[in-house]
Specification:
The protein is α/β, with parallel strands linked by helices. It contains 13 helices and 17 strands. The chain has two domains: about 180 residues, Quinone Oxidoreductase, Chain A, domain 1; about 140 residues, Quinone Oxidoreductase, Chain A, domain 1, CATH 3.90.180. The protein is globular.
Length: about 350
């Protein structure tokens, strides 16, 4: 099969590699139709990472079932599916209660199997598949992984009707967070530096979209919240932005409010000065959110799929660019340079 392999320069070489075989009777083989480039992928772009050299990456995908194991029921060749790419070891305490996003071996396991979406074929346990309704395109379905991350954060936040919410970052995660917060009945402001992303946020229902490069974001948020600060702030930028955005989140939230960290940290020890006395005296709650799994008895990805199927969320408007897998390096350049390209969610057709 064709696959994009990460090289020493941190870019990709598209090569022919062995098609994976179904390893267990309850697994399936799928033909990937579309996949997406997310913020986590971009943090690996043009970095020499020996542990990822000659590896297949990617974890946001929609596909068609090609073959099934002997014990698989409910799926057949030709079925259109979205594949959930969080797979733990299945034996730890967290996996046993469907909190596999917290599995200590999560990345080791998923990188060897389900998190290889920059390729033509992929293997996965049948339980990680969700059937796509005919009216949802493969490209639209690739954004469901993004929405699932935001769904998990929404659940942890306890957002309520008429809460005031601030979302920092108008990338795919932030725009998904915006839509889910609006569905929950909140008033939502979103803050970013890229005007094209903020325009899409407006179109997706933001009550206020603030360009922190050209406007006094703190004053805008205080005006939006009648000087009180937001009930909940979602930090959705992450990565190298965190030393700036996390203090901003603290400054936007009200006394006894919540800051939910959704954007990912870079690895290693990171020192970010914060006003800890204020955080303590104001009883500000800092909540960390990691990927997604189940909430109660419900798969968070299936919850998002149902919302998409019923027209409650919009993934199509978030897809700004589409490339072929052969053009993956150009796609990454476009996704990285969003200020000039206007990119939000960049999809690859495989």
């Amino acid at each position: 099969m064709k696959a994009a392999l990460k090289n020493e320069s941190g870019e990709f070489d598209v090569e022919e590699v062995q098609t994976p075989a179904i390893p267990h009777p309850d697994w399936v083989l799928v033909r990937i139709k579309a996949t997406g480039i997310c913020g986590t992928d971009l943090r690996h772009w043009k970095k020499d990472e020996p542990e990822l050299n000659h590896k297949i990456m990617g974890h946001e995908l929609a596909a068609e079932v090609v073959d099934i194991g002997s014990q698989v029921t409910g799926y057949k060749a030709g079925d259109r599916v979205v594949v959930e790419t969080l797979l733990g070891d299945g034996t730890c305490e967290w996996c046993r209660v469907q909190q596999y996003n917290l599995c200590p071996n999560l990345y080791k396991v998923r990188m060897e199997t389900v998190s290889r979406a920059f390729a033509e074929y992929l293997i996965a346990p049948a339980e990680k598949l969700h059937l796509l309704p005919d009216h949802i395109s493969f490209e639209e379905a690739t954004v469901l992984d993004t929405f699932s991350v935001s769904m998990h954060a929404i659940q942890l936040s306890g957002v309520k009707i008429n809460d005031t919410v601030v979302v920092i970052g108008a990338g795919p995660i932030g725009l998904a967070q915006l839509q889910l917060a609006k569905l929950s009945g909140a008033r939502v402001a979103i803050v970013d530096k890229v005007e094209s992303s903020l325009q899409i946020a407006h179109e997706l229902g933001a009550d206020l979209a603030v360009n922190s490069k050209t406007q006094d974001a703190h004053q805008q948020i205080m005006n939006f919240t009648n000087g009180k600060g937001a009930d909940i702030v979602f930090e959705c930028a992450g990565g190298p932005s965190m030393p700036q955005t996390l203090p901003q989140a603290i400054s936007y939230v009200r006394i006894s409010g919540k800051v939910v960290i959704v954007g990912g940290f870079d690895p290693g020890d990171i020192a970010i000065p914060l006003p800890w006395q204020h955080i303590q005296m104001a009883e500000i709650k800092i909540i960390t959110s990691a990927s997604y799994a189940f909430w109660d008895i419900h798969s968070e990805m299936k919850l998002c799929l149902d919302l998409l199927a019923n027209g409650k969320i919009n993934t199509k408007k978030m897809i700004t660019h589409t490339f072929n897998l052969d053009d993956i390096n150009h796609a990454f350049e476009t996704a990285q340079d969003k200020e000039s390209s206007g990119a939000v969610f960049v999809a690859l057709q495989v």
